[in-house]
Amino acid sequence: MHEYFIVQNILRTIEDLIKDYPGKRITKAVFLIGKFSGVEPDLLKTALDFFKKGSPLEDAEIVFELEDLKIRCLDCGKEAVKEKWNMICPFCGSLNTEVISGEEMFLKTLEIEEN
Ligand SMILES: [Zn+2]
């Protein structure tokens, strides 16, 4: 369950960030999850629900945004969204491509309560 490690890392990051806002609560946290990041949103949610108790995230609304795999072709310069994991450019057939998004998972936004 590598989601547990991910959540522990997330909470550590958030605890560091919130240190600059003493006494404030987090109202909302938005996570971006690439469809090919290897992170299961359901498992991540379960892990977050478990670990967030007593953390700054305890009362926060938690939102997951799923992100498609997107590649850019280095030969023809076009970008394409891929449903399945392959790196072939659908426009020119080149394999000379790079991933732009869809492989990572990170905390996108954190909303902290106002005064
Ligand atoms: Zn191409």
Automatic annotation (TrEMBL):
Binding site for Zn(2+): C73, C76, C89, C92
Family in the record: Belongs to the HypA/HybF family.
Signal peptide per UniProt: none
GO biological process, one term: protein maturation
Assigned keywords, A-Z: Metal-binding, Nickel, Zinc
Protein task: Involved in the maturation of [NiFe] hydrogenases. Required for nickel insertion into the metal center of the hydrogenase.
Stated name of the protein: Hydrogenase maturation factor HypA
Chain residues that bind Ni(2+): H2
Pfam families: HypA (PF01155)
Source lineage: Bacteria, Pseudomonadati, Thermodesulfobacteriota, Thermodesulfobacteria, Thermodesulfobacteriales
Molecular function terms from GO: nickel cation binding; zinc ion binding
PROSITE patterns found in the cross-reference section: HYPA
HAMAP family referenced in this protein's UniProt entry, alphabetically: HypA_HybF
Gene3D superfamilies referenced in this protein's UniProt entry, alphabetically: 3.30.2320.80
